[in-house]
Fold this protein.
Amino acid sequence: MGEVQPGQRVGEVTASQTQRVDAQCYRAHAAPPLGSLVRMGSPPIYAVVMEIRHEPLDPTRPLAARGADLETEDELYAANPQLSAILATRFTAAIVGYRDDDGIRAGLPSLPPDLHSFVFLCDAGDVAGFGGDFGWLKLLLEVRSPASDTAIAKLLRQASNSRTDSRSFLVGAGKALAAELSREPQRMRALLREVGG
Amino acid sequence: MMLADGFSSNGSGSPGVRRLGQVVGGSLSRGLDVRLDASDASAEDVAVGSFVTIQGRRQRYFAVVTDIELRAVDDGVRHFPPSEIGDGGFTAEVISGTVAYGQLSAMPSMAVPIEAVQQGAAEQAKTIPEHFSPVYAASQADIDAVFRARDGDFALGSPQGMESSLVRLDLKTLANRSVGVFGASGTGKTFLARMLLAGLVKQTPAVSLVFDMESEYGWQGQDNDRGRQVKGLKQLFPSRVVTFTLDEASSRRRGATPDGVVRIGYDEVEPEDIEVLRESLNLSEVAAATSWNVARHFKDQWLREFIALNAADVNDLASEIGVNLSALQTLHRRLLSWERFGFLANESQGNASAGGIIEQLERGNHVVLEFGQYGRNTAAYVLVSNLLTRRIHETWVRRKELADGGHGDEPRSLVIFIEEAHKFLTPEIASQTIFGAIARELRKYNVTLMIVDQRPSGIDSEVMSQLGTRLSCALNDDRDMNAVLMGARDAGQLRNVLSRLDSKQQALVFGHAVPMPVVVRPRDYDEAFYAEMGAGPSVVVAGGLPENEAERMQREIDELFPPE
């Protein structure tokens, strides 16, 4: 069910604030991957997926297990067609930049994205636009959720894959991370291990 | 950005200028901390003792690298080196230059207002550059701005790592104060000293008197590393250098023709000469002091008569003049060996030797006294140099006082050159010897010292601190290094530089004759140097004299019609 393609519309903004947006995906389990770059609104605001949640649409109605007598998970969904209406996939993304007349800028826009803005998974061209300087890494490092550092590592590795100088890109990004995290050596080492590994 | 532009617009921003890092802290007294740039500069690229320039907002500073350090923001790097992480070296590559980085200590010595860089008006740095001022490896133009050519300057060699630049010494200033040349044996101090002497002859009105222990300054010297002979001062400046010898036979064997032979009458030796020789002769204080009693007893010819005594006579003498017998016996035994000193003459010489040397010096000639076989005898070396220097100094003092009183001309500046200086200038005897007096009285009487030594720690600290300019090749002993730096500004920082000198062909030069401390690779003492000194190429005549016709004529003209 899952895979979404670069450039594809994946969902809508359901809550937003200056640094982060919450979005709901159109289909359950069809989320942009952790660490992927998404854009929303016009002119676009860019954000990086830092956390993904699959959950019941209505938080007051917890899901119950339904497949005790079935052989496969596919049979379970086939036997319960209502599930697609009561399941939801939501994600949180950290804002890293926006586009203005001069092009893509790293940093926070003056207003967060509007509610119900459509959210698209970015393609390689957008990702490459975030190469240059690594000022936006600081915004991601401030998120500090359990998975945020993994998200950063995945983003950097993905960005490096689309470049010819992928190793030097990663080293440059690593140096920017090291400079930001000089007071948090444990975190830095763990993060660098993920970026380099 | 503006700073970098300013840097390149004023002359020395050639593509060769390499940025190393930026100033991140420090002080004028302790030196500046320069953090090396993460990407471009490795700690391996910068050698201690090399020059850097620092571009401040209003001034450009010239500094010497005195230490290099590997630092880390976080101590964890030491405990868990990133190389242990199995990521193909990624973490190590990221961390080096960021969390773990290189830092230089640089001592700012000279500064020049940015708008005056090209005029080269560098002066002692009394300020330090602002935080984050960029630091560059010094370019040739920077070196030239500090060590710029002036009249009377002498190209000593090139700064460390900059073979095409020249470090120049101000020889007039050099000769104004005493000079020390230090270095362990085999480090090249003799070459350095010979070069300085050649520079003095060539470029200053001062005259020098060289007590040439190993006979390597006058006619020719030995280059042991290359197994060849090099020209001495006499060959370079046949008309301005006069050689005397204590050992005529040795001089002739080496193909040199001395201009005079030095003889010293027994009557010229005084008890204070024996005091100076106490260490060389291994005499107790009492035994040395006994010489005063002996001299009082025998009067002028005391030494000759004392040596002539036999053992029984010595016993009688002890009781007659009331001195300790064993002390007198020791003194007699030690002095007996002086019978072998061929330069000691029975008949009175009436100071003829000192007179001959003084005459040459007054004419403006430089004098080299070769010791021949006696150079191996420390007692002979100390005795003769001390005795002659005392006489010459007396003359200079008299002339100077007359000149001060309006009678006659000032005596010429005289540089007295001695080797193994610690034999003359130990703390125990420095206060008594004429050399100690010369070092302390500065240039009051126009006499200064050039001392060459491999054991500066043996020299009285008061004398060391009076040295205007010091040149030190590598030293092995901590105490010697401390002694060389005694009383120097920034001694603590220079200590690091001094201890890292190559064992050959590198010298740290600091003091009056150079604008800032500098590590120099002395130039080669070869045909090019000879040519610059004005001597023609070597004319090698088997067993003969490499003096060419023009030189011979000039010498003869000078001898017949002494230049005034």
